[in-house]
Amino acid sequence: MPHITANGLELFYDENGDRDKETILLVMGLGAQMTLWPDEFVEALVGEGYHVVRYDNRDIGLSEKFEGAKAPGIKMQMLRKVIRWPAKVPYSLSDMADDGAALLGALGIEKAHVVGASMGGMIAQLMAVNHGDKLHSLTSIMSSTGNMRLPQADKVAMDALTAPIPSMEEEALIQHGLHIARSIGSPGFPFDEQRQRERILTNMRRSVYQPGMQRQLAAIIDDGDRRERLARVDVPTLVLHGEADPLVKPAAGKDTADHIPGAKLVTFPGWGHDIPAELIRPLADEITAHAKAASARKPVAA
């Protein structure tokens, strides 16, 4: 699993499946390493005949960090957004979308099916807006348009996600991760504490870097409302959303589909803001069916 230079940064990525097949690029969310895409999910996509690329976004995991760069405070940044007075942020969501497009180029991949979750969905949306020629299709998962009039996250879920790490001791980090998992997870599916502990421990030993999350959150706020930009998306789009998502409410999924021409919305009851084991196969099936339909489309003759 190597690093590669893309958009002037060192990005960490991995590849699974046959390079001769079409590529699915997986883009993860806020403060989340690429390993939050479960291996079983990647295997399901590969099993459907795809070459799958995951990568750590800038400022998280094993990709390049913006050490020392200051992010504005959330409350002040929100206030400045309301009064249309821009805040100075270390980088933008569009910069992060450029990273994904540059990664494809650095790997010699002309086009991909781009699949993003949460903040990764926002990045994927901007890849479709700014780099549509590099996309076979777009899948936006548990994400939003940035429309401030949408229902806001449950306080418990947002507080858990943004709470500072209490200690770097192993058990404290595990408990912190378990609290997040319980707070944003899927109420319609069993909470497997042992599985969650193992995943948290694996990810924690790989990397713990909270400053990057703060800068990524600043980029989300700075990007604002994407609805007008999404109207320009010209690639086949699938929107997947949980009907019990406490962090990015179901209305955000509908709003996303409503503002991307021709987008299809698929929701699942009981699904929150995670990828429960029970939904790995159904989600992979939706994504690969969408990808195959997009690739089968033929241009209409003039």
Descriptive overview:
This protein has 302 residues and is an alpha/beta fold. It has a single domain, classed as Rossmann fold (3-Layer(aba) Sandwich), CATH 3.40.50. The chain is 42% helix and 15% strand. It has 11 helices and 8 strands. An 8-stranded mixed sheet has the order 1-2-4-3-5-6-7-8, sandwiched between helices. The longest helix is centred in the C-terminal third of the chain and has 17 residues, at 280-296. The model has no long low-confidence stretch (mean pLDDT 94).
- Beta-strand level of the residues, as a percent range? 15-25%
- Classified in CATH, the superfamily is Alpha/Beta hydrolase fold, catalytic domain
Span between N and C termini? 45 Å
> Rg, please?
18 Å
Can you tell me the CATH architecture? 3-Layer(aba) Sandwich
Do you know the CATH topology? Answer: Rossmann fold
Biggest β-sheet, characterized?
Answer: 8 strands, mixed
Runs in which pLDDT lies below 50 for 5 or more consecutive residues are none
State the strand order across the main sheet: 1-2-4-3-5-6-7-8
